[in-house]
Each structure stands twice: as C-alpha cells, then as structure tokens.
What does this fold into?
Amino acid sequence: MILSRIETSKERARKLAIEQAKNVSEPLSNALAMKLIEEKLIQTTSKEDIQNQIAASLEKLARSDEFDIDYQVAPLRNLVPRPHIVSLYLTAFVVEKLINHRSVEDIYGSDEEIYNCINRQVARFILR
It folds into this structure.
C-alpha cells in the first residue's frame, strides 16, 4: 500500500516536471544554450540553433509516452543518484543527438558535467 503510494507520487512528480518543462520551454532553452556555451561544454557556430534544438527536444519530451522517455534516458539513468527526468532527458539529447547537429563543432566534458550544467538551469525553472 505504501509502496504503491510512493510510486504514484513519483509518477505524478515526473508528469508534473514534464508539463512544467513544456510551459517554460522558451526561457529554459535559452538559459541552457547560454550556459552550455559559457561553460565551454558545447562549441557551436550558432547559439540560436542550439536554443531551437533544445526547445524542439522539450516539445518532443512533452509529446512522448513513458516508454519513449525511458528509452531515451536508458543509457544515462545511472549517471547520478535520483536524477531529474527533464535534466536526464536533455542530457541524453545533447550527448546522443545534438552532437550531430550541423552547428555543433564539438561537445566537451563528461556526461555528468553536462548533466550538472543542465540540471542547474532546469532547477531554476522547474520545481523538484
């Protein structure tokens, strides 16, 4: 009974975080693009392209079902203890998909450094 309530609570928190990400897509994607570039984790020819790609990823997250989200984050799910779903999803996006974008020259730093940079920005816009 208690475990069931905990699982339901975790599910609700996850869905709420994803919904909030959709609602703050523009300012969050701007902040993320700026920080990833400022912290020299991404080298790019266009900050705007990075911002647009992150915004599109947030839109995709909002439309995805549980299976697709879990599949996307699977390679990184043990990156940090108790990861934030939005931060984890965006980290997976950066290291697996954004790296191949035409305006990305290179991505530096470990997966954990990228996650931490992303998570600091996500925490500013989305309640835990």
